[in-house]
Structure formats: structure tokens, C-alpha cells
Amino acid sequence: MPQIFGVIKEISLVGFIIRTFIVGIIVFLVGRNIPKRTINQLTAYDFILAWILGALTVAPLLDGEISFTYIIIPLLTLFLWHFIFDYISLKNRKISLYFNGKPAILVDNGKIMRKNMKKHFINIDLLLSELRIKNIFDISEVKYAILEPNGHFSIIKKESHRHVTPIDVNLFAKPVDLPLVIINDGKLFEENLARSGVDRMWLMNNLIMYNIDDIKNVYLCTIDSFKKIYVAKKNNN
Question: Domain locations in the chain?
Fold first, then answer.
């Protein structure tokens, strides 16, 4: 059995493979247990933490003289600190704003806030680019443009430039539900078929309209709340 743990000056090929396997497990556990807030918001602190954790985790692969035992304490310490920080941020808004940062208004009622732009190193080209992503090509249409703590831009149009919604004209909008997957790669999901209020015979009658007589020939089939189905055949490229 090759030496894996501890300080190793020369790692054998088998030992290196086993170390790689262990690092893979550690990476999975690290990614699995970091709160989802880290991935979704990715504040400056979250980015630095993820970078440090990644560097610590792969260190035993890059240098055989770095023992796994050397990285356990830093990993556990950073995990503990991160969870404590998240808990305190949930309980205290002032501390949360201090660590995560505050939103910065870049455009206020069509007026560019140059002081905030300069403070956060945002030039006019980047601002215009973000507006174009939101299908806005005229700053005068913008009521607020806000730089969020995670680096994302939130854009709010002026009332006169917003799209008309059903509630604006007192119209009833049909509710939208997520379609249910009833066939995935030739496999029928009986529970979703029952939830949609149809049976197998109804499904097969509808599949015949797509020239399909066998469920195994269906790559994907979904059904919405109005019993409208989407079908993708396996032989379609």
C-alpha cells in the first residue's frame, strides 16, 4: 500500500491516483456543503473564500510534502467562520451590510450618479453595455440603475417606458404552471401522467399524431396544465 497521508517527498503513481481520488471527494463535500448563497450571490467575500478553499483542497496534489492533515484544520476553520458569518448576517442587518456591501445607485431618474460610478470603478461603456443587455438603449428611459453587492445590475424603467401588463388593463391572465415530464429518454413516468389527469391510452392517442407508436421512440414528452404536449423524437437531430 503506497504512502498517501503525511509528508511524501516522492509520490508513486498509485499514490498520486489515490490522492486525486481523495481530493475529488473533498472537493465534492466542499461544494456540497457551502451555502447556496455563495453560488447565487457571489459577493467579494464569497469569491475569495471559494478561491482559498479550492487552493487548500488541491494543495496535496501540487506538492507531495503537503500532508492532508495540514489542510484539514484550515478547511474546518474557514467552514466554521463562514457559517458563523452567515448566521450573524441573518440576525444583524448592519453587520450584513458591512460585510456584504450596500447597493449603489448608478442612475437616478435618468441622471447618472458620477460619484457612485467612480467609487465602484464603473465606466460609462460598462453601464451602457448592461443597459443594452436589458434591451434599454436610452438612459433617459431608466428610473433606477442599481449596482448590487454581488456585482449584478438591477434596472428599473420609468413608468412611461414599462411594458403594459394584464393588470394595467384589467385583463385576466391565465395561470402558468411548469410542464410535467411524462417521458424521458423512452421511460414513462406514471406518477406525472396521473398528476396531469390523463391516462396511458390518452397519451398514446396523442403520440400517434406525431407518428409515434412506441414510447421508447420518444426522447422527451412534457404536458402542461392545459393538456398540451411537447414531443421530441429520438431520431430527430
Answer: 13-95, 104-161, 180-233
